[in-house]
Design a protein that fits this description.
heterodimer, A: 396 residues, mainly alpha, abc type-2 transporter like fold, 69% helix, elongated, B: 257 residues, alpha/beta, Rossmann fold, 6-stranded mixed β-sheet, 10 strands, 40% helix
């Protein structure tokens, strides 16, 4: 154990003095959450505000627009009415973004309404993502107009307007705020934690095995009176630690990111902060430990096999897809932790993390994930030790 | 004391190596070292001379327990290299020509690391470090990162690393390759000093001058087989050519025939 610690301390010191390791271990995982949350929330809030406050340019047919609809529009400060002669002209102006919407009533609209039939209205709009709010505002005006017509019709027929309601639905959503949030971010968070675990372990794994081989320091290290397993465990400890630290730093980054956004509703903010409670973080990190052990052993095996730093990079880089695909599958709707998915590496961590965030995960399934990942980590470490013990690979 | 008895080492050929062979030579393995036997005694310098690819590095790696022999036996200070590799490693200091050090550590940290790996007591380590650092003038740059040192300084640190645990056996693999005259001189002095301190010294080289300058005993290796083994003085007295270099080439030609 003393020798393993000696090697571990040296490798850690060596790694921490390497700028590239520090960047992949600290800077890369720390920045995404504050940047993503900070920038996206500010941009989104400003876009929403802009769309809500904007004076909309609404075109109508000069001759066929009912007077009561026209006066309804005219009474609003957030609408500017533009009279146009034809539907085609209005459509062309919406297409060229000169109008936000164009509303054309059929020539027989008023007669149809009087005869208790449906009157035709054409609502022309161009709703892409950022125009959705503006379109919705116009849609609400049309709905409000329809409601006034309906009310007038019921009055004329001496009917109570409430008879149209056949159901009085009392909706009770029993999903906790955490569960609702887990649906939105619960898949996304483990995806990022898994990626950072992997990314954080890559560089030290390459540097401490293939890098040492290339620099020739491994040969002198192997002439010291230390067993290969001890050397491997010392290196392996550092690779695992950097992977865990990367994930830990990304969680800290999430905390900072959430803190800096003031626009989050208090209920949502408190729910997210409760996800970041010590208990949840400890559980998340302890799930990530066997995963990082698995990553560290796999990465070190490939790095030991490689002749040079460059060869190790070319062997390891394509593996990113093997990590991303199962982590991404955890994001899909309907994908849940079951007896079967609990056995699929990476996907199981993704789903278990989602379950922990939502507080819906069964303790038995979490235990199954733990056990299967520990078994896998032990197996990958055993295979790594076999590879490190083969002189044809070490002196390839 | 090193005893190498009838040692062979066979390597499997890689796919690339197999491709380079002609159809006549088609085989799956190569004998890097074949039936090699010799003895290196304390207080003497043993030179292993041979052209590139002759099997010098493989032989030294076998002694240093970096590789396991396919057959035969090696003992270092009475310990079997296969059965007791850790005891063998505790006895040896291993130095190669190309400086191989951790560039992000300082000489102080590097030497302490290797002392810890050799299980040295702190008191003994401090005393030994003082001796070696004073002898090699390492104190001036002992706290600077190795990556920022000159080649000569790095070589001094390499020597300090090799000798910190006061090994009974010192192995030098082409120790002066790629070094300038002054740095090479410090290595040659170290080899001599090790012999004078009663250590067993083995070094590999393809430089004739180093052999004549240093060796007490000599073995010439070619294609993995020893083609000469004996005391250097004896070798000199039986030379059929005018110079060591010509005699070496003559022996190689004879072996090929």
């Amino acid at each position: 154990m003393k020798m393993i610690m000696t090697i571990f301390r040296k490798e850690l010191l060596d790694s921490l003095r390497d700028r590239r390791t520090l960047v992949t271990m600290v800077v890369v995982p720390l920045l995404p959450f504050p940047l993503l949350i900070g920038i996206s929330s500010r941009v989104t809030m400003s876009q929403i505000k802009k769309a809500q406050e904007k004076v909309l340019r609404v075109g109508v047919l000069a001759t066929q627009t009912p007077l009561n609809f026209r006066s309804m529009l005219a009474g609003r400060e957030d609408i500017r009415i533009i009279d146009l002669p034809t539907l085609d002209e209005g459509t062309a102006l919406v297409q060229s973004d000169s109008l936000d919407a164009f509303i054309a009533f059929d020539p027989a609209f008023e007669r149809a309404v009087t005869e208790l039939r449906s009157g035709g209205v054409t609502h022309v709009f161009k709703a892409a993502e950022r125009r959705e709010i503006e379109t919705d505002r116009v849609r609400k005006i049309i709905d409000a107009y329809a409601a006034t017509l309906r009310e007038a019709r019921f009055k004329r027929m001496n009917l109570d307007a409430s008879i149209i309601n056949t159901l009085n639905v009392n909706e009770q959503n029993l999903a906790s705020p955490k569960e609702r949030i887990a649906e939105v971010i619960g898949g996304f968070l483990p995806y990022l934690f898994i990626i950072f675990c992997y990314l954080g372990a890559i560089y030290p794994a390459i540097d401490l095995a293939a890098g040492e081989k290339e620099r020739g320091t491994l040969e002198t290290l192997l002439t010291a009176p230390v067993g290969r397993m001890q050397i491997l465990l010392g290196k392996f400890g550092v690779v695992t630690l950097t992977g865990i630290l990367s994930a830990g730093v990304s969680i800290f980054g999430l905390y900072i990111g959430i803190q800096q956004v003031r626009e989050i509703p208090p209920e949502l903010f408190q729910t997210i902060m409760s996800i970041l409670e010590l208990k949840s973080i400890v559980l998340l990190i302890s799930l990530l430990i066997p995963l990082t052990v698995f990553f560290a052993a796999g990465l070190l095996s490939l790095s030991i096999y490689a002749r040079s730093f460059k060869e190790a990079q070319s062997l390891i880089s394509p593996l990113m897809i093997v990590v991303i695909v199962p982590a991404f599958l955890g994001l899909l709707p309907g994908m849940t932790l079951t007896e079967v998915t609990a056995l699929i590496p990476i996907l199981n961590i993704s789903l278990a993390t989602k379950g922990i965030i939502a507080e819906t995960a069964s303790p038995w399934l979490i235990a199954e994930v733990f056990v299967s990942m520990i078994a896998l980590a032990a197996l990958s470490l055993y295979l790594c030790s076999k590879i490190f013990g083969r002189e044809s690979i070490v002196f390839r | 004391m090193i005893t190498v008895h009838n040692v062979s080492k066979t390597f499997k050929l890689s796919r690339e190596q197999k491709k380079e062979l002609s159809d006549d030579e088609a085989r799956k393995t190569v004998d890097a070292v074949s039936g090699v036997s010799f003895e290196c005694r304390p207080g003497r310098i043993f030179a292993l001379l041979g052209p590139n690819g002759a099997g010098k590095t493989t032989t030294l790696r076998l002694i240093a327990t970096l590789l396991k022999p396919s057959s035969g036996s090696i003992t270092v200070s009475g310990h079997d290299a296969v059965k007791e590799p850790l005891k063998v490693r505790a006895q040896i200091g291993f130095l190669t020509g190309t400086t191989k050090l951790y560039e992000r550590l300082t000489p102080n940290e590097l030497v302490k690391y290797y002392a810890d790996l050799h299980g040295m007591e702190p008191g003994h380590f401090q005393k030994r470090k003082e001796e070696i650092f004073s002898l090699l003038n390492v104190h001036d740059f002992a706290n600077r990162r190795i990556g920022k040192l000159s080649t000569g300084m790095k070589q001094k640190v390499s020597i300090a690393r090799t000798m910190i645990h006061d090994p009974a056996v010192v192995i030098f693999d082409e120790p002066t390759v790629g070094l300038d005259v002054i740095t090479s001189r410090s290595i040659i002095e170290l080899i001599r000093a090790s012999r004078d301190a009663g250590k067993t010294v083995i070094f590999s080289t393809h430089i004739m001058g180093e052999v004549s300058l240093l060796s007490d005993d000599l073995a010439i290796i070619h294609n993995g087989k020893l083609i000469y083994r004996g005391a250097y003085k004896e070798f000199q007295s039986h030379m059929r050519s005018d110079s060591l270099e010509e005699e070496f080439i003559r022996l190689l030609k004879e072996a090929r025939a």
